Every structure is written in structure tokens, then in C-alpha cells.
Amino acid sequence: MSETPSVAHLTPLAVELLREPPGRRSRAILEERWVLYPRAKHALGALNRLVAHPRTTRMPSIAIYGDSGMGKTMLMERFCADHPACFDPEAGVERTPVLALQMAGKPGERRLYVQLLAALGLPPPSSRASVVDLEQSALRVLRAIGVQVLVIDEVHNILAGSHREQRVVLNTLRYLSNELRLSLVCFGVAEAREAIGGDVQLARRFDEISLRRWSADAEFEALVASILRNLPLREPSLLSARSLRRLLQVADGLTARVFRALNELAVEAIASGREQITDEAVERWTPLGDAEAAFA
Ligand SMILES: Nc1ncnc2c1ncn2[C@@H]1O[C@H](COP(=O)(O)OP(=O)(O)OP(=O)(O)O)[C@@H](O)[C@H]1O
Ligand SMILES: [Mg+2]
What we know:
A hairpin with a 4-residue loop joins strand 2 (86-88) and strand 3. The chain has 14 helices and 7 strands.
């Protein structure tokens, strides 16, 4: 009787990938497939509650803060993908419950409305259109497609504006939330708290989730376990406490670097035919192509 290898250490998607030739498996690993880990699940749970929240006069909002590379944009994209536009048969219209945009460049009321219109898929407005025109079109479309949650990434960019510009943008966000009864979700680095804090009334509506750098605890172990379950290797990778500490150290506590280390180790494990990440490989691993380290 031929022995079938156990795949109990993998997610169904990773098991499927095991059928692919080594080259394709390695490619799949480097493609940034979404991995659900407990901390992300907790954050997504909080965000999903916003979508389910009835429309009230004071909509709850969430701010998610974390250093660069902590996985904010990945979370945002996942949240949007979980709530795609869909046809509402009762109303006979297409609904977009979650709309996302990035706060880029110098902030301003006009720019914010132009970005909103772009996120809504509308053609760029004429440069002669007044701010009031832009506001009216944005409100009309946001209302028509039933946006419930407006997500803004890189919200710390508000701070690039003058004090007056910052106030205007925050006012606009508060106005949109009130007028359309929608929740706001803001992602940004720690300075974003200061940005939102510029409008006390707005800041009061925000619950905060902090994506702190990882430390040597059960939450970090759970992150590593989740990543390992998603890596299509034939053998389970059982890492010692020492390896976990080393991983944490080379990653400097950043989600992006933990993913990168484990992904690169997995590609190496496929190339060598070892088909598992070993303590020894973790010990040897250094972030070779790390631009930051190279220029430090
Ligand atoms: N849930 C996840 N699944 C898979 N890969 C992830 C996940 N979260 C983070 N990563 C990895 O970490 C990298 C950085 O994540 P992301 O771009 O979301 O960070 P960020 O917090 O938005 O950083 P910045 O503030 O610089 O924009 C991703 O490109 C991806 O490689
Ligand atoms: Mg980002």
C-alpha cells in the first residue's frame, strides 16, 4: 500500500498548491496571498460590525494605527474584498457598502472630493467645477450606491497640510459622516492619531485599534503558525522557541518582514527539496535583499 503524505498541517488552498510544480509553488508563495492571522481576524471583526451597524445620527468609526509594514493596507484590501459591490434586488440598484481611498499628497477639500469621485469610478471633473459642485456630485453618488463605510488609507497625510487645510479636511470628513450617516475607517501610522485629534468632535467617534510591533508572545506564535499553514510545503515546519525569537529579531517586529522571511525560507525549502522550514535554516537566514539593511 502506498503511503499518502499527510497534509493536515496545511490550509485547503495550500494543499491544492501542492499539486503544482516547484516553480509555480514558489511563485505562488511570493505573490502576497492574503493570510488570515488572529490579530487580523480581530480587526476585520470590528470592521465588519461597522457594515452591519444601523444608520444612526452618530456613526461609530475605527482608526487603525501601526508602523509602516504592519499590514494596514493588506487589511484594508481584505475588508473591501469581503464587501464588494453587489446588486440589491429589492431596491433594483447596485450597492457598494464599502468604499476605499488613499489620502495622497497635500490635503484639501477639493482634492478629497476629486479622490472620492475617482474612487466612485466617475471621470475627472472639469477644473472649472466649484467645490460645491464636486460635493454635490459626490454626495449624490455616495447616497445612490449606499456607501456605509468610507475607508481612508494613509490618513497621516492630512498632516502635510497647513493648520487651516487640516481643519477643512477633517470638517469635510465629519460632514460626510453626518450627512450620509456613514462610518469612517482610517488607517495610518501613529502620527495619524494626532491628525484626527485635530477635530475633537470627530476624534470622539473613533475606536482605536493599534497594530503594535510583534513581541515574543502567543500572538506572535499564532501569526507564524498562520503563515506556515498557508505555505505549500509537503512537510510540517516545527520551529523551536529559539527560532521564533530569532525570526522576531530579524523581522524587527514588523509583519511585512515576518512574511518575507518565512516566504523566502519556504522558497528555499522547495528549491533544496527539504520541503520544510528547519530551525537550522532560520538560524542561517539573513534578509539579503533588504534594501534598508544594505544602506544602513
Ligand atoms: N495578511 C497578510 N497576508 C499576506 N501578506 C501580508 C499580510 N499582511 C502583511 N503582509 C505582507 O506585509 C507587507 C506589508 O503590508 P502592508 O502594505 O499592508 O503594510 P502597511 O502597514 O500598509 O505599510 P505602509 O504604512 O508602509 O503602507 C505586504 O506587502 C505583504 O507582503
Ligand atoms: Mg499601507
